[in-house]
Amino acid sequence: MSETGASGLGGERRPVPFRGGGFVLRPHRIAGAAGLLALIALWQIGSTRGWISALMAPAPSEVLAALGVIAADGTLAVHLGASLGRIGSGWALGTATGLAAGLAMGMFSLARAAGLPVVSALFPIPKIALLPLLILWFGIGEPSKVATIALGTFFPTAIATFSAVDGVPRSLIRMAQSFGVPAPRIVWSIVLPGALPGILAGFRITASIALILVVAAEMIGAEFGIGAFILQAGNLMRTDQLLAGVVVLSVLGLLVAALLSWAEWVLLRWR
Length: 271
Fold this sequence. Notes:
With 271 residues, the protein is mostly helical.
């Protein structure tokens, strides 16, 4: 390129702006917290001035006070412990079986041909609609609630794992096979690392589904649990306690999302 073309018509050298930074994600933690605080402040102002009914939506200060009361008298610990136990058992069972099914469908043609139509047919069924049937099978106790959560997490995990494995570049697998790398080593060193981002993304979805299902299952038939607590507070028109339970669910969802973000940071450093 000529001197004039590089420098411009006037002969003056001007730096070329960097144009390769598009679609680069930058953290904006302050913006997220500021937006949430602004929403809470508007809610508090509206409640204080009477724009929002205290019965329909108590002020955030009242919700915080109710949350402090149930935390101090041990009510929160009892209900939260029951819900976490169900979520942990159901999510672990559904995730383990979903990973196995997804890996099988992603790597073996026979498993894909037999399993994919079944998973695709059963996945759209609302799992909470199966709770009465599961109660008939397993009883009104914990197994039916755990089974509901496990079913709800199995299908998204299987589909996410299958899609992630199917998306691993086949050129990498063929190159490893051409060098005589054993199949277990190919799966461990190429398939799983390549599919891990998609699998972890599926975990984010299934964690939210497990939280939704445990609340719904506890509302239908449970004495203890966050869902049972919210239902009882609603029946008694204690909207401050009801919203306190909703806040607990929101905080629990944020903690799960933070834990998964940490897992992604640890497991996906190679990217």
